[in-house]
Amino acid sequence: MTTLYGYWRSSAAYRLRIALNLKGVGYGQVAVNLKDGEQHGEAWRAIQPQGLVPVLEHGQDRFLQSPAILEWIDETWPEPALLPADAAGRCRVRGWASVIACDIHPVQNLRILKAIAQDLGQGPEGMKAWAQRWMQSGLESLETMVAAHERSTPFLYADRPGMSEVYLVPQMYNARRWEVDVSNCPTLVAADEAARALPAFAEAAPEAQPDAE
User: Fold this and answer.
1) Which residues contact 96 (CB under 8 A, 6 or more apart)?
2) In Å, how far are 157, 166, 171 from 151, measured between CA atoms?
3) Which CATH number fits domain 87-198: 2.60.120.260, 1.20.1050.10, 3.40.50.2300, 3.30.499.10?
4) Rounded to the nearest 10 degrees, how much is the dihedral formed by the CA atoms of 52, 112, 69, 91?
5) How far apart are CA 6 and CA 4, in angstroms?
6) In this structure, what are the phi and psi dihedrals at residue 68, rounded to the nearest 5 degrees?
7) In angstroms, how far is the first alpha carbon of the chain from the final one?
8) Nearest 5 degrees, angle CA 45-CA 205-CA 179?
9) Which CATH superfamily is domain 2-80+201-208 in?
10) pLDDT category, 198, cuts 50, 70, 90?
11) What would the mean pLDDT of 94-120 be, rounded to a whole number?
12) Predicted TM-score (pTM) above 0.90
């Protein structure tokens, strides 16, 4: 049995839903209500000491941190592969994914935005301006990287979606939510639209989750 502990609007949980769907892996879901602060309770901290989601439970194992979990998923269910077959291709795609996972997402996740709005006294408008600033600059940099790679389909690396889209689609969802200007990112926009048209992505969308508001 595979169980995903997450929150409907968590980008990191969204990534795992996409990956599991692409692999055709059945899984159950347990919601951790970040909005109500459930992640701060002792019960959840006993599972994830950082108070974050997602956590993936498989048999007797519990795995933390979506980048590591995605690599485990790809190794455990090799087909269809999320990463290219060659080492150079894998490095390139991991680099693109890291722009999102390491540079964009961490500074605009829920706990950081709450700190901007509340602890630093910037309020909702300051929170929105912060999110827009770092998402726009990060996505525009990523656009420059991916646009340099030749492709024959809208997907970023191959003729089907892979790890690049697993990271991209949740981040583009956040960009729309925060009204980020992505007019300078046509390659990313095209890949996002093509991926979201596929069942594996549509079924992973935040609004399609059992705990969606």
Assistant:
1) 142, 145, 146, 156, 157, 164, 167
2) 7, 18, 21
3) 1.20.1050.10
4) -170
5) 6
6) -70, -40
7) 26
8) 95
9) Glutaredoxin (3.40.30.10)
10) very high
11) 94
12) yes
CA 209 to chain centre: 15
Q: Are 135 and 181 in contact (CB under 8 A)?
A: no
Place of tokens 């995605």: 70
Burial of 119 (0-12, 13-18, 19+ CB in 10 A): exposed
Query: 151 Cβ partners below 8 Å, 6+ apart?
Result: 157
Phi-psi region of 179 (alpha: psi -120 to 50; beta: other; left: phi over 0): left
For residue range 39-72, what is the model confidence (pLDDT) as tens digits? Answer: 999 999 999 999 999 999 999 999 999 999 999 9
Q: Is the model's pLDDT at 109 over the cut of 90?
A: no
| pLDDT, tens digit (0-9, with 9 covering 90-100), for 146-162 | 999 999 999 999 999 99
CB 82 within 8 A of CB 162: yes
Q: Where are the domains of the chain?
A: 2-80+201-208, 87-198
